[in-house]
Amino acid sequence: MKLIRYYNLILPIVIVASILLINACNKESSYSVEKTSNRPFKKLKPTEPSDNSNAPIFDSTEHVIIVVVDGPRYADTWESPGTTLIPYRKALSKEGALCASFYNNGSTVTVAGHTAITTGIYEILNNTGAQTPSFPSYMQAWRKTFSQPANKAWIVASKDKLEVLKNCTDAKWKDVFNPNANCGNEGLGTGYRDDIVTLNKAKEVLALHTPNLMLVNFKQPDMAGHSGDSLAYVQGIIDSDNHVKQLWDFIQSNKHYKNKTSMIITNDHGRHTSGHLDGFISHGDDCAGCRHIEFLALGPGFKKNYISTTAYSQIDIAPTIAYLLGFKMPFGNGKVMKDLLEE
Ligand SMILES: [Zn+2]
Ligand SMILES: [Zn+2]
Fold it and tell me: What stretches of the chain show up as alpha helix (H) in DSSP?
């Protein structure tokens, strides 16, 4: 009897205890499942900054405009006392990167200098416009890579002979992917025109065709230098500085270009060092005055208020543009001007 009573008493206790234990186990297991399923998910979910850490950082450069001021000496631009002849470029340099050791290391004349800039290769060419470069320009390479039409890349120049820059003789690149050209009075063989006409044409083309690439040539420092009139040469440098400023203001006041456009200001060659041969009047040899030229770059991707003393030269421009816009130059051994680019 006593045993039965004992069982009657103990059984409900065992059952209740078992139910409580099972419930406790269920709670513990459901808690631990919840815990382990959540934590790894949170850890594996990529965060925005680490996900984008390897993305290109120059994606906002969509347009590149090169302005070639024809033939001033570095001594008369960035090295002139107080930089008085290029006040606008001096002011713009606060927003950009200046290379203080930039050179034409090839033939220091107009067609060859421009060719080194556009193709990334130094070569000796007829300087009258009778010969096209041997290798394709960055404009041809860009057009081919991105299947872009001719009106998205332009050469706009005061000197008619610079129309030769649009083509080359390489068998695979001749007559294909050429940029548009608007040079001289009415094209190759028609003579030079005033820089103000070129400035207005450049603005017109930018507004009408919205090109991604443009090379502009202002002739006046070189033209006036050859005339032997030192005051006209000085005025030519001052005027072309004004044209550079107008072009940059046009870009920055245009919704299509503002903050998406890089502008490079450089020269095709300098002029003889003062005291060497006829000084500022001529150019074409390897004296320091002919070789040392300017390079200022403004826009997305370039450092601000920065002066580089790393030595670069004209053949480095094309690969730098290719790097900024994400394509490869098919020829050339120039280097990307990384010292001037934001990291
Ligand atoms: Zn020139
Ligand atoms: Zn010289």
Answer: 2-44, 48-51, 87-92, 110-119, 138-146, 195-209, 220-227, 230-252, 288-291, 317-325
Span from the CA of 71 to the centroid of ligand 1 (angstroms)? 5
What separation in Å is there between the alpha carbon of 222 and the centre of ligand 1?
6
- Distance (Å) of CA 269 to CA 144, 188, 227, 307: 29, 21, 17, 20
As its CATH architecture, domain 63-340 has 3-Layer(aba) Sandwich (3.40)
pTM score: 0.83
Cα 320 to middle of ligand 1, angstroms? 22
CB-based contacts of 115: which residues, under 8 Å, 6+ apart? 121, 123, 125, 133, 165
pLDDT digits (tens, 9 = 90+) for 13-65: 444 444 443 443 343 333 333 333 333 333 333 333 333 344 444 457 999 99
Give residue limits of the domains in the chain: 2-43, 63-340
For residue 101, what are the contacts with CB-CB under 8 A and spacing of at least 6?
308, 309, 310, 311, 312
Length of the chain: 343
Coil/strand/helix, residue 131: coil
Residue 16: count of CB within 10 angstroms of its CB? 10
Looking at the chain, the number of H-run helices and the number of E-run strands are 10, 11
pLDDT of residue 177: 98
Rounded Cα–Cα distance for residues 269 and 313 (Å): 11
What region does 124 belong to: left with phi over 0, alpha with psi -120 to 50, or beta?
beta
C-alpha–C-alpha distance, residues 173 and 122, integer Å? 18
Written as one letter, the residue type at 35 is: K
Expressed in angstroms and rounded, the spacing between residue 112 Cα and the centre of ligand 2 is: 15
